[in-house]
Amino acid sequence: MTEGHARHDRHVIALMGNPNTGKSSLFSALTGTRQKVANFPGVTVEAKIGTARFENSEITVIDLPGTYSMAARSPDERVATDALLGRIEGTPKPDGVIIVLDASSLDRNLYIGTQILEFGLPAVVALTMVDVAESRGITVDVAKLSETLGVPVVVINAPKGRGLDDLKSTLHRTLHHPGKVLELDYPDDFLRGVNTLYNELCDLGVKLGFKPTRPEALRLLVDGAGPFFDECEEVGGEEFISKFFEIREKAAGGRSLSMHEAQTRYGAIGKWMQEVKQTETREGRTRTDIVDGILTHKFWGSLVFIVVMGLIFQSIYSWSGPLMDAIDGSFGALGEWVGGMMSDGALKSLVVDGVIAGVGGVLIFLPQILVLFLFIAILEDLGYMARAAFLMDRLMSRFGLNGRSFIPMLSGFACAIPAIMGTRVIEDRNTRLTTIFLAPFMSCSARLPVYVLFIAAFVPQMKVLGFIELQGLVLFAMYWVGVFAAIPTALVLKKGILKSKATPFLLELPSYKTPRLKAVGRTLWDRGGSFIKRAGTIILAVSVLVWAAGYFPHSQEVDDKYDAQLAEVESAYADSILEFNPEEDADSLLAQYKAIDDAHEERVAEAEEAAEDDDALEQAISESKAERNAEMAKLAAKSADAEQALSHYADWKALEERRGEIENLRGGEHLEDSFLGRAGHVIEPAVEPLGWDWRIGMAAIASFPAREVIVATLGTIFNLGGDEDEESETLREVVKNAERKDGSKLFTLATALSIMVFFALCAQCAATLAVMRRETNSWKWPIASFLYMTVLAYIGALVTYQVAHALGG
Amino acid sequence: MSTGTLDKLPIGKSARILDVGGEAALQQRLLEMGLLPGVDVTVVRQAPLGDPIEVKVMGYSLSLRRSEAANVQIETTA
Amino acid sequence: MLEYITIAAIILAAAGFTGWRAWQTLRVASGSKACGGCEKCD
């Protein structure tokens, strides 16, 4: 079987091998940024497709998922075979294959290597991790390996860029010659079985719609189940199946077929290795062994696990603070600048209250997202994730899950969608459904902005036990809310509808690697980019819609009413005050008084940031007030004009305050009268027990497309409602100062906690529900998930508010 | 010389694999990962909660549950 | 007048985009679009 040794300048190459072999970094090194994700219909594993250039030719590289064997027990495992044979629509047929082999565990890597070589495609071996092997006393004779396998072998070190040119030129040469089929010494009965089955399959070929290959016959014979078997059963019917089992029994000769296959492959590999590999026993333990001695230690391992997780949440605050303030400040300035350029009216409101307040409110959380993913990327690249699964498997298996469920769950902290898609590695259907149902409980990065906003606004900045930031601690706790809700849910599912037996947990614990700057950088770039993209697309669109619902009908009657009130108030004051504009008359006496007042307010603001407790703050304020009064008195003493100006200044200040109040009332009434407001009043009774008012309720409902939208909608709603100072305030400040109708503060710590708990547990993410529908192939699961999570979120928020409120929060 | 199953092998001890059994998919998986007759295996450690265990086989580290290791027949020489 | 036409256009665009995204989401649910609108290929 030597087909497809194409002779054109555009070649297609499949990249295959075990996981953790450096396959991805080879792919990145070959293709650079010219890559995209290939979608395989019907399965969730994905491949990346990129383009490498060599001299005048272009090579399309398909990076297939890393796997230990070509055995195809599930549709996902079948992808490797189908892709290799060019049977996937939209994915080009490979002309050859690069087999990535890790020199430090060459035996096991060669297992799939022998399987691939049996397909007979032109192949080149890329040998990685030679330095790691050498540090463990393993030397590989590259020329011997090449001679034994009958294919060229190139030593590469992708992160350092070594061997890439050699690999490309070798590939170029190899692709112009037909590949060789690797022949192994299978037992006679086994081989006869493969051949007989191959003939049967060729007879079925027309009905199958493709020409079967011999390696596929071998796979079908050994695996005895899986998607290919199902296809054959469908087209071959009863007749084929009975023949199949007859062939199988003869081939097995009383033993298991997988045993025959494994013994033949590993037997051959063992023989080769005697010539190819030299192992020198090294004294002492490897670096990975030493590190694992601590990281998976009974006590230290668990401690490190908890400390690492805690550290992540601490850093989210302490590292991103300054950057956040900078972004916050620039959006405030942008709003002011744009506001100053446009004339008052609906369009200005749309831009300032809708777009800038909405999108800006979300964008300021970019630093937090980046810090979270910085840690996740480093831990992933380091090889710690497999250890986390190792540590957690026992615990997970108690809840009917699996250490394997832990990895999708961990990625659920980034986003529930890849987590749900990643559950395909779980073979058992019930375990998989349980994991899918639980994945959205993990606090994804979209919840982070919600948490950060309310924690920054309502949890005091102080240290617990002298070194733990309270804000970071509360954030950490929020992540546990989801986990604690998931545990009983899992138990109920396990005992009830989704009973399942324990599923296999076989997991390689790869050697630790120094995290690669490039890989970490790439993750940050991708995540940051998609966050900004969301802010610029769906969040922008929803902000505009929420603004429209909150702005219109904007009736003239309301405006007339408040214009009249304004005129009445102003009539009581002198013209000189009405015409006073601090910016234009900067030298006037009034402006000088205002400057003294501004300086005082600035000192108070600084004191609020710096003061350690309330007593110190009060003292600082009274000192500043005394200073202001003294300066004003000094100015007033200079002349009679100055003295009179002081009383005018007091009048002006009172007027400004009245104007502000009227404008706030005007904004509030417009909002109440708007479509959003009318709908809000309908739902208000439902959210009142949670400590929310209608504005929070509407913001929560509007965030159905994605959780972080609530931050944008809150920004829009409160800006529209005029619940703000004339100074451009940050959303944090707006939220802090928002008031209920009776003038009491809208958000207390209890309300803030209630909102956070609600968002930790709710299913406000349309994309997650859609993926759930696809993965389970039924609306039953997403609907159940939505109802269950919403009810849970409501109860959680209710209990949180009532308890926190009773405790005085 | 004594025989037994891999899950009973104490931490730090090595043994040679005699046979690998278990339900078809599990057996296939164990074999693919290099746990097959004639191969030496060492138990390196157990997870903090006692399960799973980590074994060294064919020069790499593999973690598996005790219930899975119970399908691997071994003999110890020491 | 021009102001209100601009606003109407922006609102229509936003509504259209939201609707399009909703449709895309439903396509994901039905399986005719392979990718889940996640962070990776959003």
Question: Could you provide a short overview of the structure?
Answer:
The complex is a heterotrimer of chains A (809), B (78) and C (42). With 809 residues, chain A is an alpha/beta fold.
What does this structure look like?
- The complex is a heterotrimer of chains A (809), B (78) and C (42).
- Chain A has 809 residues and is an alpha/beta fold.
- Chain A is built from 33 helices and 12 strands.
- Chain A has 5 domains: 10-174, 3-Layer(aba) Sandwich (Rossmann fold), CATH 3.40.50.300; 188-279; 302-495, no CATH class; 543-554 and 670-806, no CATH class; 556-668, no CATH class.
- In chain A, helix 11 (287-295) packs across helix 12 (300-341).
- Chain A starts with 9 loop residues before the first strand and ends with a helix.
- Chain B is of the alpha+beta class and 78 residues long.
- Helices cover 17% and strands 42% of the residues of chain B.
- Chain B has helices at 24-32, 66-69, and strands spanning 2-5, 14-20, 40-46, 53-57, 60-64, 72-76.
- In chain B, strand 4 and strand 5 (60-64) form a beta hairpin.
- Chain B is globular and about 30 Å long.
- Chain C has 42 residues and is an all-alpha fold.
- Chain C has one domain (1-42).
- The longest helix of chain C has 29 residues, at 2-30.
- Chains in contact: A-B, A-C.
- Chain A binds chain B through residues 68-69, 71, 73, 104-105, 107-108, 111, 136, 138, 222-225, 256, 258-259, 261-263, 266, 279, 288-289, 292-293, 296-299, 301-302, 386, 389-391, 393-395, 397, 403, 427, 502, 504-510, and chain B through 20, 24-34, 36-37, 39, 44-45, 47-52, 54, 58-65, 67-68.
